UniProtKB/TrEMBL annotation:
It holds the Pfam family FA_desaturase. Keywords: Membrane, Transmembrane, Transmembrane helix. Residues 69-329 form the Fatty acid desaturase domain. The lineage of its organism: Bacteria, Pseudomonadati, Pseudomonadota, Alphaproteobacteria, Sphingomonadales. This is Fatty acid desaturase. GO terms for cellular component: membrane. One of its GO terms (molecular function) is oxidoreductase activity, acting on paired donors, with oxidation of a pair of donors resulting in the reduction of molecular oxygen to two molecules of water. GO terms for biological process: lipid biosynthetic process. It comes from Sphingobium quisquiliarum P25. InterPro entries: FA_desaturase_dom (IPR005804), Fatty_acid_desaturase (IPR012171).
Amino acid sequence: MTVHDPIFASAPVNRKAIPDDAAMLRAAADLTREYSVANPAIYWPDMLASALLGYAALATAIMVDSVPLALLSGLVAMLALYRAASFIHELTHIRKGALPGFRLGWNLLVGIPLMIPSFLYEGVHTQHHARTRYGTADDPEYLPLALMKPWSLPLFIIVASLAPIGLILRFAVLTPLGLVLPSLRRLVREKYSALSINPAYRRRAPEGEFRRQWLWQEAGACLFAIALVTSPAVLGWKPLLVYMAVHSGMTVINQLRTLVAHLWENEGEAMTVTAQYLDSVNVPPPSPFAALWAPVGLRYHALHHLLPSVPYHALGKAHARLIATLGTESPYHRGNYAGMWPLVGKIARSTMVKR
């Protein structure tokens, strides 16, 4: 397998000039057709085990007096809950009826207790996959980070570390106030109801069944957030502080993963599917830690942009077949990287280039 080394490729590429590679696109569709079905026997145990391990470790971190054991338990909680939370990405792509009850179960067990109900992502992430939106000003999940100022990258991570505070304000404060202030309710819906990184993105009002899902999920997150901020009166401060620390760490890991999910070199022009693939990143085996920082198939993010309907548990097999089938001259091989830190370094060096 060819793994692209980003160390010697720090100059941004004119991606809008990259034509589609018909052979790669045809092979991707043909070779992976059999992998498009989500398997409930994989989804449910994986999500449930991750959530239960995460909450058990979180409870241990809160209750034990030993600092080393508390730190170890907190780390386990952070990684396990991060994996459980990552299923929000799968929810946006699951075909209707493929996994009955999974959306409800995930929201009750993970989305609401972590204050990230699925309405924050559903209907948003699919716009990132739209052929004419990716990498443009209309993409809610794209910023040309590699072309921005050097201070933008640390700021990108620092903001993520404050996510638990922002989510508490969003659901414990703004949601109740929005019930009595229609203008605030509209502002919250447009600007603070999406897990996006594009500050210019504005969200439309939900309709139909999705609106009903949005309402009960927001109500649940609101009640949980209020219970969370009032909990010190009954439980003391330690449970809240440990929860916040674990949540913050989980969000920082996800933000680092987001930072290396793409090369962020597009300046707003529409791109071909092949150009979108080359602006995205796979971190396949043998990278030893990618399964921890990019769980639930997120290590195959470039492949996911080629085949967004393929469930996470089939991406590894699809990747292996494409690597074995497509010659080394195929652009598919240029979307594979060795790990997180070389990619961070590449993007950081790109921000230091004078333009």
